């Protein structure tokens, strides 16, 4: 099987032009087929603040009202997505920006409102792996924003970590797939003071660090997504800075 | 050769959910392969007004400063494009939203600043007809927003009428291509009081009506694009309401 690397990039990188340019330059050094997944939460927060619209979070996930969805659509699928694609083109990586509605690439359903109402948030129903394969085999790199949709044409916000994990699981039937969660830190810390990175994180350690509150907020669903990926065919899952991963310095590998 | 219909939809339709839904429903009635091109100028104007940013026009074309470009990116390539794609998916038309940077579909260069400075505006260098064909042959309808880019990765604003015309010219080597400019009117009027539609508009009539000021503003580059299309292989060019064209009522056909 051919190799495929699914990269997810965090909002602190996409917000900062210097960091983003460095990240995208690093992508040119990765051999084989690649898919990039991004959100743009930090930029959305700035935009919401500027427009005096409240930012609502719950357990590390955003509550998306209609206005927040509209802004997310504009920033994730419009500004951030197209700026990444244009930059990649200038680096000679032929890329294609997508939201989940494009070519039915990521179909979702509106999250059921139980005790918690996350608003216009989608849970993934299916990944169009046939389309992703078509694009990859034509030497084009998909760049997926974290906007999805449901079968009735309702656009939805979906956690980018989860999209990256689900795409990885689905594509692992066709490619030897690695999933790299890239952000501004070197990996998952094993202490509150952020002095030491965990090199190999297994489920038992995760549970222990979660109960101590050392792994918290957005890191909890991120690491949960990793374990989900490992159970579903993804061959390797890394969390850290793309610099470090490429240069084989410190990063966190998730192991069963 | 297979038939291809390139549709361009105007901003007064994309701004109005009822008109847009009707327009997209009508698309399901058109047989054969289709490409849709849209801008979103009216929605951009509303957004600029809301954000106290001046709207600048010259000869029916927008002057795009950096902030206007950012907003155009968000509205054309983000909000309008993805809302159209999601709606088409719900109508069982598999579609793919694009800006020019996506898969290098529409490559431009920054317009030279001579006596007039249009700002971040791109003139078309090339259309990636191989990519469009790949998508069409896989039964997916491209939906092109009027955001393009240059080889250095600079995103640019480009007239949607011109994009539709250039795509039509390029695709006419592979498909029997028709170009339909769809908007809220039934066609091009032959008098200032908008009482009578011109059924067949040739170059001589165009020049005469332009000199009298009856064809003016944005209609001038639109019709100019039509004559350019006719000279470059497009088999039929229509201007009017999609309702009327489909039902074969009054519309304007451009003839040499």
Instruction: State the strand order across the main sheet of chain A.
Output: 5-8-2-1-11-13-14-12
CATH superfamily of chain A: Acetylglutamate kinase-like
Count of all domains of chain A: 1
Structural classification of chain A: alpha/beta
**Rg of chain A, Å, rounded:** 17 Å
> Largest protein interface?
A-B, 39 and 39 residues
Shape of chain A: globular
**Could you name the CATH class of chain A?**
Alpha Beta
Report what the structure shows.
The structure is a homodimer of 256-residue chains. Chain A has one domain: Carbamate kinase. In chain A, the strands form four sheets. Chain A has an eight-stranded mixed sheet with strand order 5-8-2-1-11-13-14-12, with helices on both faces. A two-stranded antiparallel sheet of chain A has the order 3-4. With 256 residues, the first copy, chain A, is of the alpha/beta class. The longest helix of chain A has 25 residues, at 66-90. In chain A, α3 packs across α4 (66-90) and α6 (160-171) packs parallel to α8 (219-231). In chain A, a hairpin with a 5-residue loop joins β9 (147-149) and β10. The first copy, chain A, has helices at residues 11-15, 17-27, 41-50, 66-90, 129-137, 160-171, 203-211, 219-231, 242-246, and strands at residues 3-9, 33-38, 57-58, 61-62, 95-98, 106-110, 122-127, 141-145, 147-149, 155-157, 176-182, 200-201, 236-240, 252-254.
